[in-house]
Amino acid sequence: MIKVGIVGGTGYTGVELLRILVNHPEAQLHVITSRSEAGVPVADMYPNLRGHTDICFSVPDTNTLGECDVVFFATPHGVAHSLAEEILATGTRVIDLSADFRIQDADEWEKWYGQPHGARGLLPEAVYGLPELKRDDIRNARLIAVPGCYPTSVQLGLMPLLENNLLPEQTIIADCKSGVSGAGRGAKVGSLLCETSESMMAYAVKGHRHLPEIKQGLGWMAGKPVGLTFVPHLTPMIRGIHSTMYAFAPDLPADFDLQGLYEQRYANEPFVDVMPAGSHPATRSVKGSNMCRIAVHRHVETGQIVVLSVIDNLVKGASGQAVQNMNLMFGLDELTGLNHVALMP
Amino acid sequence: MIKVGIVGGTGYTGVELLRILVNHPEAQLHVITSRSEAGVPVADMYPNLRGHTDICFSVPDTNTLGECDVVFFATPHGVAHSLAEEILATGTRVIDLSADFRIQDADEWEKWYGQPHGARGLLPEAVYGLPELKRDDIRNARLIAVPGCYPTSVQLGLMPLLENNLLPEQTIIADCKSGVSGAGRGAKVGSLLCETSESMMAYAVKGHRHLPEIKQGLGWMAGKPVGLTFVPHLTPMIRGIHSTMYAFAPDLPADFDLQGLYEQRYANEPFVDVMPAGSHPATRSVKGSNMCRIAVHRHVETGQIVVLSVIDNLVKGASGQAVQNMNLMFGLDELTGLNHVALMP
Amino acid sequence: MIKVGIVGGTGYTGVELLRILVNHPEAQLHVITSRSEAGVPVADMYPNLRGHTDICFSVPDTNTLGECDVVFFATPHGVAHSLAEEILATGTRVIDLSADFRIQDADEWEKWYGQPHGARGLLPEAVYGLPELKRDDIRNARLIAVPGCYPTSVQLGLMPLLENNLLPEQTIIADCKSGVSGAGRGAKVGSLLCETSESMMAYAVKGHRHLPEIKQGLGWMAGKPVGLTFVPHLTPMIRGIHSTMYAFAPDLPADFDLQGLYEQRYANEPFVDVMPAGSHPATRSVKGSNMCRIAVHRHVETGQIVVLSVIDNLVKGASGQAVQNMNLMFGLDELTGLNHVALMP
Amino acid sequence: MIKVGIVGGTGYTGVELLRILVNHPEAQLHVITSRSEAGVPVADMYPNLRGHTDICFSVPDTNTLGECDVVFFATPHGVAHSLAEEILATGTRVIDLSADFRIQDADEWEKWYGQPHGARGLLPEAVYGLPELKRDDIRNARLIAVPGCYPTSVQLGLMPLLENNLLPEQTIIADCKSGVSGAGRGAKVGSLLCETSESMMAYAVKGHRHLPEIKQGLGWMAGKPVGLTFVPHLTPMIRGIHSTMYAFAPDLPADFDLQGLYEQRYANEPFVDVMPAGSHPATRSVKGSNMCRIAVHRHVETGQIVVLSVIDNLVKGASGQAVQNMNLMFGLDELTGLNHVALMP
Prior knowledge:
The structure is a homotetramer. By secondary structure, chain A is of the alpha/beta class. The first copy, chain A, has 2 domains: 2-128, 3-Layer(aba) Sandwich (Rossmann fold); 150-313, Dihydrodipicolinate Reductase, domain 2 (2-Layer Sandwich). Chain A has 11 helices and 14 strands. Chain A has helices spanning 12-21, 42-45, 62-66, 79-89, 106-113, 131-139, 149-163, 193-196, 210-222, 258-265, 315-329; strands spanning 2-7, 27-33, 57-58, 70-73, 93-96, 126-128, 143-145, 172-178, 201-202, 228-234, 241-247, 272-274, 292-298, 305-311. In chain A, the strands form 2 sheets. The first copy, chain A, has a 7-stranded parallel beta sheet with strand order 3-2-1-4-5-7-6, sandwiched between helices. A 7-stranded mixed beta sheet of chain A has the order 9-10-8-11-14-13-12. The mean pLDDT of chain A is 97.
């Protein structure tokens, strides 16, 4: 059994980690920390866990965390910077769900996050935890940066095109739609039901923190810098990300077999499902599951490639992918504890 | 492995049965029938099942169904009446999710369903599949009538009071609120998003088909007929039933330990969770799970007993309870394949 | 033109007042105050008002408010207590949407609101602004207490029964369902979309601040104290209240003409619509309008009277009713500026 | 008073027309037809209209329709083809909300709608009813084709760019998100709450009937054919369209004043609101109103122009725009009866 710790489990990625881990056959929850909720049973805060775990929040403590085989950080950015080194020093591995280690270029990180990078020394060994791109590195990693939700859906949607160098023009567009849980459990007016339901809006058109992360990943795939216009939208639902990507490939023959390219690329991926040609995946088809479903189209008049990619932002976009990383790091079948069928309807 | 058949799996209780059964460690899906969809993979209709099962719908056929250990009926009322006998004759057990065998009084059934009862001969052996009330009978049954969604939540909410004969006045009220999935997957104007979201309404105040079923169950508990005013409401959400029950017990001492009564009654029930005193369970705390969560209050001024009972109408109110019955019938741990944590948020 | 001031217009009742008043043919918006937003155009906070008004929030100031014919308070409780007297002294009338003057018994008010009553001296002249009950008093009032949202729907639903002394047993139950806007625009975790959508829950079963207000009104109608069990529920929608009321009247003949009683009582009420016998009004039928729609049923088995009453909590339950009061106070047709058709779908 | 007839008022654009017209000071509803609902009061079908109109549906009849000054068609496509000529012959003007006269090229229409064009002879005088583009023609028209919902939001969003010939590359993308009411009131599984809420999906990527209509309009603005990739998405809300448009203009100076261009173009338009620079309009800011709100951005890295355009699909995208056309045709102030403030929250 893998002994698991969670730092900062009071948010949505925290409770989602718990939902997955309490039924994971090879994981045992050892400690979950929250300074503000110390002593409170997690099931008091999240009654869906009643009957599944008796664990209480406790004050963060390196000794207890150091007893774990792996510690997940489900914290705001900056926290893992300050704690990861200490925990790694005890021999415990770290899977960070925050943005702290996602961007390899510390200066770029500081520009977008507006504060000093607190752990530059760890960046060389931090592995970007997108299994479809970095599976072998993940297996041997001590420190994982779990990708963001938008970056996961966009990178998986564009990977086959970029890896095969099919996009000569740097005019990729990612028009992304996210459920409100992506904004977290903070008490913000902008996340109230009365402000977000029955409405749709774009935000952060001038620049969103996931932009440099996505561009970093696309660059790895293409072997060169890739331009991207990324516009996120707030969508009136709890969970789900739908990324619609547009790529202009004027030199690609009209009969190029995009469907085959995608099916072949993801043939052995347990959590990427290439839908049949002509499909339109709905986010509800992955609600509560770790699956990413993708469809690829080509516009008959303009020749634009249109890719549709859906995930559950809290699962494949956060906690599920974190556990997928854990499975890889500890030599388990990647599917272990992650075979949830999406809740539909 | 239990060989399982499903008759009529195209509705919401059908896909929910599939969601549960494809991950059930002791069940193997042998056949699923739908005349209209014969030949179509179920995963084409319900993409959440892609990667979990390759089974296709097939035309109903007694031979194939007779190869199963158990057949679930997820059909409109009347269908099980006409098919159950034939299937039972092959030695296969039947778990009927429809209303066909829920009411023991066939004349009463005919009055509410407006058509002749098609299988009066089977009623004596039909067992009402509410494990908390009929566990021993279920273990030995060949034919199970899975309770309706409203009846499950109301009966579990009132059981401790009625079994202990605490309600002298016949003025019980059940004010129930259901998500729209209770209306099924039929293409009806009344179930459109634009007709049901952002709105709340009562319906069937003059009489709902679940009324006689609930009164039958309450009568069993009380050992005598019980009056009930039952008003269902359509609530703008997909899943969930919240039943608020009011019972007038003027002779009950103000300090009577209702909390203890409920906790004791359900101490050994794996799927009934008595919440701490003063709680207000939300339907989302059971979304996707087979749990029923209950809180019991007493109004400080009027002395009214107020019981709050929540379930997921598609799980404990239908397909989950059906599988719970199957587990009992085949000697499995009642929890097998049913330990889902509710999806929250 | 009536010169109008608004104190505290940043919440939902504030913006709803503005929505109504900017198109009111006899009202002219003179000042709207908010200490925190002083200088900000209201249309910056509420873009639906762009093009309808250029007014900016300003710091509260008695001189400016005193220039108005009437000042609306759309503030948390306690604010009107401290400011009303000063404003009234300038000859300006006051319509208070908060709870400050709703309860005539100041001790009772203090018990439920947990703070000293700040304006006992004004209570004798404060008029409870339910036009269907107090129309003549309203016409001559200087100070109006606009009823709460739940109290409006419950009182209108029970008025014909109580005024005619038809309910001998004190076992009235009001099971009320409210949209989330009833909780206001405050940044609370409990009002987040991810906490409230796709879920239904009761709250405050032990006692809600609207209970004494409702009982006061029912008592006025009945001419004696009336017992009430009141249970509010949080419903996953923005606007709307659905009150389901149960009253036991065992001595009332089964053929008593309840429908006629209600139709006659409300025959001349512009904002109460008695639906045809057998109806089930939906909250969406009043969304954005000042109408209260009511249906009255009698349960065929138990004889319970079941009343269904729906309003838009922000209109008839707050800002619309406030303007209805203003119309009465200034001798206008009661419908002036309030003839909105509900938005449907 | 303008005497108004409506053909086919049972759908969502029909009831929305009624909502607007019953409060329109210069319009008088003379007749509304529906073969299936003849004799039924419209307020029985749409209870929001109770108290606002007593009119009943009647069988379509040219004599009665011919008594009107103007007849609105709120019908499926094909109906106006067969009836418009007859009505026009009586001297009555026609405003068609269907697609029948939107596309000037009848062959193109037949290709997309899969049936013969039934009124080619009327096309030369049919005016495309987008006031911002065709105001003068509308004033003198006998026959108006009201634009589709997506086309309205996209054309208004791109008009300033195309009229000024700023887009050299034909790679315009319109990623559009629509509420479910755009699918109409038909009883379709795909429009059920349980199929559409809590989910987001693209549809018709291969080609949507609004594509040729949009391209026709963009071509008029540019004076030459314009390529467009148009992807509509089904969004879990009742009303609203959010169009996000991407246009590549590599030769446009980085400091080009797009904000000024838009503000100037729409300075005198009563129903187009150019938001301040940096804004993100939400669809709820126009819910129930005839306004289109637009923001224009330029991506700092890629130089892509990003335009955000929101409307209420049932108002500016259908019935409100239809009434705006009527106002123009009859010499009224364009705002008459259309000054609704959006319902927010």
